[in-house]
Amino acid sequence: MNFRKLSHTDDTVSEIGIGVWSLITDWWGADVSKAENVLLKAFNEGVNFFNTADMYGYGKGEEILGKLFETKRDRIVIATKIGYDFYHKKDSLKQSFEVDYLQFALKKSLERLKTDYVDVLMIHNPKMNVILNDDVLEFMKGAKEDGLAKSVGVALGPTLGWGEEGMKAIDRGYESLEYIYNLIEREPGETFLKNGEINHLIRVPHATDVLNEMKWPLSTSEKMHRSLKDNQWVLKAHERTKNLMKFCESKGITLSQLALLFILHERKVTSVFPNVSSEEELKTFLQVEEIEPLNDDDMKFLSDYYKRNYKDLNVESIGETIRYK
Fold first, then answer.
1. Which intervals hold domain NADP-dependent oxidoreductase (predicted)?
2. Which residues, including other chains, have CB under 8 Å from residue 319's CB and lie 6 or more apart?
3. Which pTM does this prediction carry?
4. Which fold has domain 3-323?
């Protein structure tokens, strides 16, 4: 396992981390009963960076990490997120960034994680008014000063197009940014990556499983996370991706591995969190650590491929965010 520096801390983290969300809900097709097995397998294979949120499984994501790693706390790095109030109405996606609520939410997260600190604490999918809120920023800085968090940041979402919000979060002094970045959806990630001072935590590297052939044919079930994406976008992206398979064959790698190699080529990336839903996927993804990195010619090919096949889809993805704003 290769490791990278977690900025603003003394920690190093596995460049491939595990996002708990895809294991403890059925949104990504996982058998949730096997979540513990997958997490322990990842740990035994060298993964030390685990990314969760209080909202994931209404606390279950944090609980499972606390259960498995309480006695190994000094050997793992935890990122979690707060800002969704599921305590008072579980069936809604109500957010709350009042300082009193954030204090309460952080306390409950630490209890579930069975720890007295997290390595990265982020506010979860805030809009611009929250990022500009001085009280929220002071709370986050206070959590760091009090030793409850080593680094504080912003997780952007639920969609792609939060470029202005991400840049403002950096300007305001947040130290970590979690966001979508992949072969198809390169912006606003490439703009964020011009900054070398923050932690870049990359999610959805397989573009809603379009870049993960293990999930083909892609299901359109309303239970799946990709149902939040326009289905025509998924179909177009899938069709335009088929020609990449020849490139993968020439490199002796899978498409899902290519997607991760593309992201890890950028040295400013701190860690990438693929949506793992099985031990088979975990094994395939971690094999990337044994594969020769992409070279400059490979990256040029992928850049040209993006311009020909994906750039308009990237623009469409950014446009999907309007309804959330």
1. 15-301
2. 161
3. 0.95
4. TIM Barrel (3.20.20)
